[in-house]
Design a protein that fits this description.
Layout lengths: L5 H4 L28 E9 L8 E5 L4 E5 L9 E4 L10 E3 L8 E3 L19 E6 L4 E4 L5 E4 L4 E4 L15 H10 L32 E2 L11 E2 L10
Parallel strand pairs: 11-12
Antiparallel strand pairs: 1-2, 1-4, 2-3, 5-10, 6-7, 6-10, 7-8, 8-9
Length: 237
């Protein structure tokens, strides 16, 4: 029996699945990769419902870019980006030029991609060791990951660290929070669905009618539950 995938349902239909990315004010990323050092002025700090952190609007000579505002940034501050930029809060510098122990954020996964790691409010990573061919960084999860020395990162800690301290109190607040960020909410478990909506769905009983292990080669509508697990069950000592 065919199943409508969640990717297909989000493209059209009711507000539960409608994508509202057109309301975003823009993408927060680094300036285009260049070997020259450029400077820009912070003209405003704005709110974006698609981002958890405040965004700084930086005006360079030829364009205006958005970036996650670090803690302590003010309007009128001059920021630099490039290999000769100073090691100061808000500046964007290649990892090979940043000293060990420095807090960084919005780290590039590959040189020139604009930043992929450590982008949420209140987060930062720390450079732990430097080698000729790689830079080791401790991410907020305490996991260490190696990056190319040519990858860029911004100096500092992203502002908005207290956003998780305020309780939601009711489901309606959570609904609007998820809707603003284009998240699917609420998420319902498969056994509560009808049989046409999920392979584990059925009437009445909460017992799954089929095994929860799905093959790696299962079709998209069936690939639910444990995807090609190496083992299942309780581990024997």
């Amino acid at each position: 029996m065919g199943k409508n995938l969640i990717q297909q349902r989000r493209g059209k239909g009711s507000s539960t699945f409608r994508v509202r990315s057109f309301t975003s004010i823009g993408e927060a990323k680094h300036l285009s990769y260049s070997k020259e050092t450029k400077s820009g002025e912070v003209v405003d700090i704005v709110h974006s419902h698609m981002h958890s952190a405040p965004l700084a609007k930086v005006r360079y000579d030829d364009q205006v870019m958005l970036m996650q505002a670090p803690d302590g940034l003010k309007v009128g501050t001059i920021l630099e980006t490039g290999p000769k930029a100073q090691i100061e809060i808000g500046n964007t510098v290649p990892l090979k030029d940043i000293p060990e122990g420095t807090d960084v954020y919005n780290i590039e996964g590959s040189p020139g991609d604009g930043g992929k790691f450590v982008r949420s409010a209140g987060s930062s990573a720390k450079i732990t060791s430097k080698f000729q061919d790689r830079i080791v960084i401790m991410l907020p999860s305490k996991k260490e990951r190696s990056f190319s020395p040519e990858c860029r990162a911004s100096i500092g800690i992203i502002s908005g660290a207290g956003r998780l301290e305020k309780p939601l109190l009711k489901a309606g607040k959570s609904y609007h929070k998820m809707k603003a960020r284009n998240k699917y909410y609420p998420q319902v478990e498969g056994v509560s669905m009808n049989a046409v909506a999920h392979p584990f769905g059925s009437k009445g009983s909460r017992t799954k009618g089929r095994p929860t292990q799905a093959s790696r080669n299962a079709p998209p509508g069936r690939k639910v539950g444990k995807i090609a697990p190496r083992r299942t069950g309780r581990r024997s000592r």
